[in-house]
Amino acid sequence: MTQKPLQTKAYDYIKDLILKDAFAYDTIYSETKISKEIGVSRTPMRDALHRLAQERYIDIIPSKGFCIHQMTKQDIIETFQIRSAIEGYCTVQIAKDHKEDRSQKLFRELDYIMEKQRKILETTQDISVFVEYDNQFHIEIVSSLNNRTFHELFGSYLFQIKRLAVLSLGHPGRMQETIEEHSAILNAMKCGNLAEIYSVTMKHMETPKGLNLSDFCYS
């Protein structure tokens, strides 16, 4: 069995801890200490940290270490711009090819995800679980085009997408609205409705962006 390169080992280790919320936002973490925990040297650790910084998981503090990235207003705007560009294109292409077997398979996956989301709305209204299905809904759409660049670029924003979704879903009624917007996107794709698919996709981008920006302005 081939071992992971040390840079990848360090990257995966730290990213996993971040996704599990193991790091506090107001703390600077020692590069040296974590290197010892993982058992890697300075060079692969620094390479891993630079990659995590590029993907906006962390901010590097020179001569001190790193901290979890504090999202800015520009981060919010850029995240939704990237999402709008990628997902807007993807949903249009899926709608164009709505009769293809791969599209029909996608629609079944999205129907299943939406069933799970509706169940959460009707029962626990657990935002953290809802967000996991929300992410999966969008990942399935982007992945369906088999465009490696889209997949990688979208993946590099997933952490911020998830953080922003958690915040927007904290607004009263947003969980219900999200399901309605997902339903509009899915129905337009299923019907091949090219007159509506882009506008309903953009609505699903602009509504949470507005909530996130309003939260940022009043925080």
Mean pLDDT: 94
Structural shape: globular
Counting helices, strands and paired strands, the structural category is mainly alpha
Give the beta-strand count: 2
The unreliable regions are: none
Strands side by side in the biggest sheet: 1-2
Give the distance, in angstroms, between the N- and C-terminal Cα atoms: 49 Å
Element pattern in H and E: HHHEEHHHHHHH
- Major sheet size, sense and barrel closure: 2 strands, antiparallel
- Helicity range: over 70%
Rg is 19 Å
Name the beta content range.
under 5%
Structure annotation, total helices: 10
Tell me what you see in this structure.
The protein is mainly α and 219 residues long. Helices cover 72% and strands 4% of the residues. The chain has a two-stranded antiparallel ribbon with strand order 1-2. The model has no long low-confidence stretch (mean pLDDT 94). InterPro entries: GntR_C, TF_FadR/GntR_C, Tscrpt_reg_HTH_GntR, WH-like_DNA-bd_sf, WH_DNA-bd_sf. Pfam families: FCD, GntR. Keywords: DNA-binding, Transcription, Transcription regulation. This is GntR family transcriptional regulator.
Task: Supply the key terms.
single chain, 219 residues, mainly alpha, two-stranded antiparallel ribbon, 2 strands, 72% helix, globular, DNA-binding, transcription, GntR family transcriptional regulator, WH_DNA-bd_sf, WH-like_DNA-bd_sf
